[in-house]
Design goal:
CATH architecture of the largest domain in chain A: 2-Layer Sandwich
Strand content of chain A: 15-25%
Structural class of chain A: alpha+beta
Low-confidence stretches of chain B: none
Mean pLDDT of chain B: 88
Number of helices of chain A: 6
Helix content of chain A: 25-40%
Helix content of chain B: 10-25%
Distance between the termini of chain A: 34 Å
Largest interface: A-B, 27 and 23 residues
Number of strands of chain A: 12
Radius of gyration of chain A: 18 Å
CATH class of the largest domain in chain A: Alpha Beta
Strand content of chain B: 5-15%
Largest sheet of chain A: 6 strands, antiparallel
Oligomer: heterodimer
Structural class of chain B: little secondary structure
Strand order of the largest sheet of chain A: 5-4-1-3-2-6
Low-confidence stretches of chain A: none
């Protein structure tokens, strides 16, 4: 039976090792080799930057959504835990969170934890207690295991669908080209093309593709945010720059 | 009780969001190494804000480059 899952990892790297996003990508690749589906991009979730938090350099977690054969749920958790133990950087504090959104009785409690992790210093014990109460898998795979806080928070924020930006970029669209919204919507990482402070664009609107465009999570959808490009291309929109997307 | 962790590295005095200063600093830095692109924060590729050795702080960042920047 197909089961939708969220899988989030955090604190797997150091300054010299592959980033957490790269490891999340490898877990996604493993899921695909099993014939299961990873239909949307991995999301990056920025958590609080604070002197009391021992992050490597940016304190972000990476979350993927997948649809798997539910009979292999525990086996995937076991594989992912072993993978993190082997592939995380020495001295890192990796954490793994896996949950089935359809089985969550109190999603609001989890989402509240995710929001708090963006604003407060949270304790490892609180993460474990909440995960246990909600029937969520949360495990430590080295070091202090402090990454469980970010792993749980990242899964919570992905579940809520109002935070984070896609890992990678919309590589199918070359910078400097004008693309109709209808074509952009065919991409698995674009559910909607929307003005930063305004409504969605119509399917026939044109968007000038900038360098390394990314979609962000808004209202549970991958949204490509655009701005009016009035000075150079009247009537045409442009994708947001990296600096403009820092808030997401 | 949470404990505070000592802030490693150097404070280069570049406020978060000062892209001109971060670009100028990186241009003359022999240790600049681009971070994973998903962690880039500046449009200009060669910027302290995109460097593997920057560690974000609430105010800005500290530089952890093995070779201290000039």
């Amino acid at each position: 039976m197909d089961t939708r899952i969220l899988l989030c990892i955090d604190d797997t790297d150091d300054l010299d090792s592959p980033g957490t996003g790269e490891l999340a990508e490898e877990i996604g690749a493993h899921i695909r080799t099993r014939g299961w589906d990873v239909p949307a991009p991995i999301t990056r979730h920025q958590l609080l930057i604070h002197p009391d938090i021992p992050y490597t350099s940016h304190n972000s977690s990476m979350c993927l959504a997948a649809t798997i054969d539910g009979r292999h749920y525990q086996a995937l958790i076991d594989w992912s835990g072993d993978f993190l133990a082997k592939r995380s950087a020495p001295g890192s504090d990796p954490g793994l969170c896996v949950l089935r959104p359809d089985k969550l009785d109190q999603p609001a409690a989890l989402i509240g934890f995710g929001r708090r992790a963006k604003a407060e210093v949270l304790e490892q014990r609180a993460a474990h207690e909440l995960a246990a109460a909600l029937g969520i898998h949360l495990s430590e795979h080295g070091g202090t295991g402090q990454g469980v806080i970010g792993a749980l928070a990242g899964a919570a924020l992905r579940l809520e669908g109002k935070d984070g930006r896609m890992r990678g970029t919309l590589r199918d669209f070359a910078a400097g080209t004008q693309v109709p919204v209808l074509a952009l919507l065919q991409h698995p990482a674009v559910d909607e093309v929307r003005q930063v402070d305004g409504p969605a664009l119509s399917p026939d609107a044109l968007v000038m593709i900038g360098e390394k465009p990314k979609s962000v999570m808004q209202d549970g959808r991958f949204v490509l945010l655009v701005q009016a490009d009035t000075p150079t291309h009247p009537g045409i929109w442009r994708t947001c720059t990296r600096q403009e997307l820092q808030a997401y | 009780m949470p404990r505070s962790y000592p802030a490693p590295g150097l404070d280069l005095g570049i406020p978060r969001g000062d892209h001109a200063a971060a670009t100028a600093q990186a241009a003359r830095c022999p240790g600049f190494t681009p971070d994973d692109e998903d962690e880039w924060a500046a449009d200009e590729a060669r910027s302290c804000f995109n460097c593997r050795w920057r560690r974000w702080t609430p105010a800005s960042f500290r530089c952890l480059a093995p070779t201290p920047p000039t």
